[in-house]
Amino acid sequence: MERQMKTTKEILDEKLSGQPRTPLYSPQALDAIRRTVDQWMNSTVRETDRNNWHKTPRTVLGSDTPRELLYTPLSHPDLDYEQDLGNSGQAPFTRGIHANMYRGREFTMRQLTGFGSPEQTNERLRFMLDHGATGLNILFDLPTIQMYDSDDPFAVAQVGMSGVCVDSVEDMARLFKGVPLDEVTISIVTHYPSNTAILFPMFLALAEERGIPWETLRGSVQNDITLEELIRSGSEYIPPRDCFRIQCDNIEFIRKNVPKWNFITINGYNLREFGTSAITEMAVALSNGIEILDELVRRGYDVDSTADRLAFFWSAANDFFEEIARIRAVRRLWYKIVKYRFNAANPRAMLMRCHVQTSGVCLIQEEPRNNIIRAAYHALAAVLGGAQSLHVDSYDEAYSVPTEEAALLSLRTQQILQKETGVTDVVDPLGGSFYVEALTHDIEGRILDEMEEIERLGGYVKAIEGGQIYGRVASYFAEQQRLIETGEIALVGQNVYQSEVEGPPINVFRYPEGVEAEQKARLQKLRLNRDSEKVQSSLSALKDACLKGENILPYSVACARVRCTEGELFKVFKEAFGLWKPPALF
Amino acid sequence: MTKKIKVLLSKLGLDVHNRGIITVAKMLSNAGMEVVYLGNALPEEIVSVAIQEDVDVVGVSSLGGAHLSLGSLLLKEAEDKGLKDRVAFLMGGVFGPSDGQRLREIGFDGVFLPGANSEQIVSGIKNLV
After folding, report:
1. Which one of A233, A364, A488 would you mutate to disrupt binding with B, by most B Cβ within 10 Å of its Cβ?
2. pTM for this entry
3. Cis link prior to A163 (omega < 30° from 0)?
4. Domain span including residue B61
5. CATH at residue B69
6. Nearby residues of A120 by Cβ (< 8 Å), 6 or more positions away
7. How far is A585 from chain B (nearest CA, A)?
8. What is the per-residue pLDDT across A289-322, written as a single tens digit (0 to 9) for each?
9. Looking at chain B, which residue has its C-alpha nearest residue A162?
């Protein structure tokens, strides 16, 4: 794979440093302010504050970015409105990807749903739609995520827990019964490139069977190597290079055949929740994004007509202003990367579109109702940052998957934001804030610095293979644990303001019984009824495509049509690519 | 000189979330225990390795909801292989206090809820062994 010899930071420095700038604040104003600030520092500001001017908030999943006591124009004196901000919908898109943002299109309320059998999840999906959800977001159970059939020995006693079980296109049909696939936007959370290449074809085969053209389908898949190779714990991995190849096969196929579908939601979220900072989360995601675009260019595609459907997936955690500033920072940075590193011309290809999920790790078990407040702050930050779509974690996060009541509350959190606060009537309301602009600028630089480290290691896939990213993440979460235990990170109800008295208990979701048995019976029936010759020949053709380097998706769709099961396709991947052993975690 | 406490740690079943168990592995190692980390495993393998490695404690982690279903299979396997009486079984992960209570009722010697800190875990283990 050809690799750019210059790092992104070097390229951007080169291309942007010559550009003429028109500072927002006049030199006279800055001089005058400098004088008054000096005077104020000596006469009004306390000595202890003068000596501790910068303070770093200690928060769950926060970065090490220090903050001033008070921000003034001096904090970011060379701010240039046109170069650094632009208007919304205008390069560099700091203020928003569209001119009218939420006035034109409200953020999609897309709550995760998934548990039990496909029918049981279907019921909850319809409940959410009936109560005003504007998008679906489907989460699978662990056997399905890890690509084992519900009757695989590995799946024992885990079917239908923490997500919905899907083994074949017939389960997809049950899952989406009564859901108009061409009218609702559907996020199908296939975390990995491998399970995306298995499960999304089942969805496509279903659409076909229902007479729904693929061109009308709207939604997203996750399809991220980070999830498959870096942050999940599993028993069997295919090598990172092959996983990356599948990630790009998925992108290539979906771009061509399902034009309104978001073929990747670059992580982001799960990496952060695994345990890393606001900065590293974005540096990793952008490094992945760059490597993907490099590969697509190598395959003969042009960035202008492929990057426009690329999307990102961020978390929103406790440090309120950091969460807002970093979404603005990454929006500006991604624009610069696509324009200056990839020489794109289509503005749509330069937009950092994103889904945000509020942080689960920030929601603790003690006094669970406090989490409603935490999640509300997270959601507000995401909206002030300009997210396109939102999921709000529920207050019973530290107990189980959400009860119906908790899931509804999450939806209401979003609806109240959207309908009652007036926050969405103004685009980028914090734009121009001395604090927010300075912090946005600072964070952008830090993200770029961390990207440079990854690039100097040989790029993202190399850094996964070598274990360096993992190493950074592992030290981060070890440090987080230490900070929580010393109390430097305060958690209300856990290490500060602990209650003597236990509050009223909450209802905890109970997984329905009998799902595993039912699913096993269905699989047995499926295997009897399908054409086993067609199954064998389609699996064999898939394996060939794997080995020959052809795009595997058409073959996977063919498998889905004839009722191949997920485990059967994963087996083909394992046979074709072999198993990889990740660097030891401990 | 006392022998080091030997602990086998494992992700129970297919659960993908291993931040907690890795953190615990380091906690125990820093506290002077010998830690064997198995990664993802089913009850049969966990018990078999526990016997092979002659451990004092087996600690499993479950954030995927299968703590009771797989947890009970683990304890049953441990009993069948005569391990239940010789080794302490601990469970950590994401589940509520009432499930925690239930886990103790079915035979887990120790249960750690989200938010458990190193002091609680380390002393919890030392008290059991």
Report:
1. A233
2. 0.95
3. no
4. 6-128
5. 3.40.50.280
6. A160, A164, A512, A515
7. 7
8. 999 999 999 999 999 999 999 999 999 999 999 9
9. B64
